[in-house]
Specification:
- The structure is a single chain.
- The chain has 165 residues and is mainly beta.
- It has one domain (8-161): Methylamine Dehydrogenase, Chain H.
- It has one helix at residues 110-114; strands at 8-12, 17-22, 28-33, 39-44, 50-55, 59-64, 69-75, 84-89, 95-100, 104-109, 128-129, 135-140, 146-151, 157-161.
- The strands form 4 sheets. A 5-stranded mixed sheet has the order 4-5-6-7-11, with no helix packed on it. It has a 4-stranded antiparallel sheet with strand order 8-9-10-12.
- Keywords: Repeat, WD repeat.
- It holds the Pfam family WD40.
- InterPro entries: WD40/YVTN_repeat-like_dom_sf, WD40_repeat_CS, WD40_repeat_dom_sf, WD40_rpt.
- GO terms for molecular function: RNA polymerase II general transcription initiation factor activity.
Length: 165
Amino acid sequence: DFHPNCNYIVGGGEDRYVRLWDLQSGTCVRHFTGHKGAVTGVKFSPDGRYIASAGTDGRLLVWDIALQKMAALYQTSEPQFRGMTSLAFSREGNTLAAGGVDNCVRFFSMEVATTHTSSQEHLTPDPKVNPAGFEMFNFRTKQTPVLALHFSRKNLLVGVGAFGQ
C-alpha cells in the first residue's frame, strides 16, 4: 500500500515482517515484528501515521509509525479468522474494516486503538491487547469470502467477493 504522501510503500509477506520502504532511495526504513504467521494484508491510515496489518496467525496489528511500535493487537483463536486478507480505513481514519476467507467483514475502532488514557501511556512499550470496544461489530456474508474492501468518497464500504467459493 502507498503512504498518503506517495514517498513510502508498506508490504508484508511469508517472513512475518511488515516493512516500510522509501521509494526514492529504495531502502527499507522501518520494519515491524509481531506476527507469528505470514502477513496477508497491510494498509496505511489516511493520515499516514498508522499501519494496520493482518496475518495467518489470526492477528490484526496497528502500528504507530512515528513511535515505531505496536499500538494495538487484536487476536482471536477462531481458526476461520486466520484468513483475513483485506483491510480498508474509512475516509476520516476512525474505522478500520477487515475481511477475508471467513465470510465476514469486521469493523474496528481506531479511536480505541490509538487514544491514550494517560499522559504517559504512549511511553510504554506494551500494546493494547484486545482492548474493549476495539471490534465494534461484524457483518457475515452467506457464502462469500471477502477478497477486497474499499471506502468510497461518501464513506460507504464496498466489498468484493467470490460467491460460493
